[in-house]
Amino acid sequence: MGPLNGLRIVEVRGIGPGPYAGMLFADMGADVIVVERAAEPSGVAPPAAHDTNMRGKRSIALNLKTPEGVEILLKLLESSDAVFEGFRPGVAERLGFGPDVCLARNPKLVYGRVTGWGQSGALSHSAGHDINYIALTGVLAAIGPSDKPSLPLNIIGDYAGGSLFLVIGMLAALLAAKQSGMGQVVDAAITDGSAHLMSLFHTLAPLGLWQSERNANLLDGAAPFYDVYETADDKYISIGSIEPQFFRLLLELLEMDTALIALQHDRSAWPQLRDEIASKIKKRTQAEWRDVLEGTDVCFAPVLDMTEASKHPHHQDRRTYIDVGGVVQPAPAPRFSESPTTQPEPPHSEGADTRSVLASLGLSVEQINAALATGVAFE
């Protein structure tokens, strides 16, 4: 059932990093109960039944703008290990379920908060999105061609800087609560996490090994042996031959003069070296280069789209992608030897589990029907 089997985690549904963090908890075996905040989808997040990030979770729908709806949430938290939300600072407090109220009901509760700017700071109450958070932390400025930064989807900010740091922080707090019996608040800011992800480059810069200009460094596309090249069929391959023995092998398999190994770190020779490599690669298709380079120590992979990726033999061998409810999607990760995860259930629609969850809290059929009839809860 996964290493988190036995934990109950409540997710107050939002957009961005929250649903993905909840999916990670559910994939690892936690009983994740999503609290929908209205009878209808927000229009920003996809409908829950079609949202991969909702897989493996149960769903209840409450009107958290009513005291009765908040009371049901608080009752649920009394028997839960953790809760998390992604509101702007102060919103949960105004609605009546801020950390102080929740921890008073359950002192062992871990209360996770994931926001763009964090719970404090000059921008903490401002609106923002992934692009803004990574812009403020040096991430966006470092990615792309020399003339303009490129957008790395919302993976680095929302999911790496937000979701993953929220999950790490909540798991650490859950371990601490197990030892101390005391819960706490986890403040996961996407700006904090994104800044943290730049740690390597804060190491390299003082050593003179990283320049602030884009496309001027080893890992940002400037080096001809660490880049993407176009093939004869207008597709692409990736080359990462950083180590000299790997670069030598690349030269051999491209049928180039291995004496060029002496120019690998001569930046003045990089433009010419790039042109020669590009010319060679452009003469064959992506499939032909896979026959030559895949599985060697060149450090090679074809550049695949999502559909192509799911069909690659390596991913098929490892079952990296699975079918959940007719939708091909990534399998749970990472993998555990003694407490393996199971196939996730397809996502439930908003409020699909309202009745069963309320019943598990001890509400009678009459009380549940009354909550549904008065708009306190939905199904």
Characterization of the model:
- By secondary structure, the chain is α/β, with parallel strands linked by helices.
- Helix content is 37%, strand content 15%.
- The chain contains 15 helices and twelve strands.
- It has helices spanning 17-27, 67-78, 91-95, 99-105, 130-136, 155-180, 190-197, 199-204, 244-253, 270-281, 286-293, 306-310, 313-318, 354-360, 365-373, and strands at 8-12, 31-36, 58-62, 82-85, 110-115, 184-189, 226-230, 236-240, 300-302, 321-324, 327-330, 377-378.
- A seven-stranded mixed sheet has the order 6-5-4-1-2-3-12, sandwiched between helices. It has a three-stranded antiparallel sheet with strand order 7-8-9, with helices on one face.
- α1 packs across α6 (155-180), α5 (130-136) packs across α6 (155-180) and α6 crosses α7.
- The longest helix has 26 residues, at 155-180.
- It is elongated and about 80 Å long.
- The two termini are 27 Å apart.
- 35% of the residues are buried.
- The model has no long low-confidence stretch (mean pLDDT 96).
